[in-house]
UniProtKB/TrEMBL annotation:
Molecular functions (GO terms): electron transfer activity; heme binding; metal ion binding
Lineage: Bacteria, Pseudomonadati, Planctomycetota, Planctomycetia, Planctomycetales
Residue span, Cytochrome c domain: 57-140, 161-249
Listed InterPro entries: Cyt_c-like_dom (IPR009056), Cyt_c-like_dom_sf (IPR036909), Cytochrome_c550/c551-like (IPR051811)
PANTHER family: CYTOCHROME C-553-LIKE, MENAQUINOL-CYTOCHROME C REDUCTASE CYTOCHROME B_C SUBUNIT
Protein name, as recorded: Cbb3-type cytochrome c oxidase subunit CcoP1
Keywords on record: Electron transport, Heme, Iron, Metal-binding, Transport
C-alpha cells in the first residue's frame, strides 16, 4: 500500500528534462569559476602591476631609466660619480636639451661614455632617450645657477685655441691647485696622458666652465675670483686651456700619478 502511494506521488511530480539539467549545471560551473577567479585574485604573493615583467624597450619612467643606464657613472642623484655630474644647474644652463640628447645617443669619442641609441647597438630607444633628457631637465634644472649670464659657450670653438696662451692662463688660474706644470698639488695632476686619454676636449671644456662642485672644484667664475687676475675666465681663455691640455695628452710631460 505504501509502495503504491509513493509510486503515485512520483508520477505526479514533473521531472526536469535533460536540457534543463544541462543549463543548470552550466550555470553552476560558471558561477563557481567566477568565484574561484575572484578568490585567486586576492591570494597573497600575486605580483602587482609594478612587479610584472616589462620589456626593457617599453620602460619610460625617468628614475628607472636613469638608475639602470646612467647612475653607475653619473651618481645615484646625478653627483659624486666618476663622470661629470648631471645634477648641475650651471651645466644645464649652458647645455641645451638637443646637446644632451646628442651626447646620450652618440656618446663621447675617446671617453668611457658609450652611444646609448639602439640604432648603434645601444640599449635605449629614441623615446627613452627623450624621457631621460626631459627627466634630467625636470629633476635638476629647476634651480638656476647662482651666476648671471652671459656664460661661456658650451661647444668647442671652431678655431682651436693657443696652447702657449693656455700656459699663461694655467699659471694664473690653475697652478695654485694643480701645480705649476700641472703635476698636481692640492688637486690632482692634469699632465697625465692616462687621465687625459679618457676625457674628450669637449668634456674638458665643460668641466673648466662648470667645475665639479661635488668634488670641490670651482667653476670658471669662482676660479677667477680666487685667481691672480681676480676675474672670471673668458670663453677664449677656456679655449686656450683646452688646447694646452690637449697638447699634454699627446706629449705626457710626466706628472705625478
Amino acid at each position: 500500500m505504501i509502495r503504491q502511494r509513493i509510486q503515485q506521488i512520483r508520477r505526479k511530480v514533473p521531472r526536469p528534462s535533460h536540457g534543463v539539467l544541462r543549463r543548470w549545471c552550466g550555470r553552476l560551473c560558471l558561477l563557481s569559476l567566477f568565484f574561484s577567479v575572484g578568490c585567486f585574485d586576492s591570494l597573497p604573493g600575486k605580483p602587482t602591476e609594478a612587479d610584472r615583467y616589462k620589456r626593457p624597450d617599453t620602460v619610460m619612467d625617468f628614475h628607472t631609466l636613469y638608475k639602470t643606464n646612467c647612475s653607475g657613472c653619473h651618481g645615484a642623484d646625478g653627483t659624486m660619480g666618476p663622470a661629470p655630474p648631471l645634477n648641475d644647474p650651471l651645466f644645464l644652463a649652458i647645455c641645451s636639451d638637443a646637446d644632451i640628447k646628442q651626447i646620450v645617443m652618440h656618446g663621447r669619442d675617446n671617453t668611457p661614455m658609450p652611444a646609448m641609441d639602439h640604432k648603434t647597438s645601444g640599449p635605449l630607444t629614441e623615446k627613452q632617450i627623450n624621457a631621460i633628457v626631459a627627466g634630467i631637465r625636470a629633476e635638476w634644472g629647476k634651480t638656476p645657477p647662482q651666476l648671471s649670464p652671459p656664460f661661456p659657450t658650451y661647444q668647442l670653438a671652431e678655431t682651436p685655441g693657443d696652447a702657449q696662451a693656455g700656459k699663461k692662463v694655467f699659471s694664473q688660474y690653475c697652478a695654485t691647485c694643480h701645480g705649476k706644470d700641472g703635476q698636481g698639488d692640492t688637486a690632482g695632476a692634469l699632465n697625465d696622458a692616462g687621465f687625459l686619454g679618457t676625457i674628450s676636449n669637449q668634456a674638458l671644456r665643460r668641466i673648466i666652465i662648470t667645475g665639479r662642485s661635488d668634488l670641490g672644484m670651482p667653476n670658471y667664475h669662482a676660479i677667477g675670483d680666487d685667481s691672480l687676475e681676480g676675474k672670471p675666465l673668458t670663453s677664449q681663455q677656456i679655449t686656450d686651456l683646452v688646447a694646452l691640455l690637449a697638447e699634454w695628452r699627446t706629449a705626457d710631460v710626466g706628472g705625478n700619478e
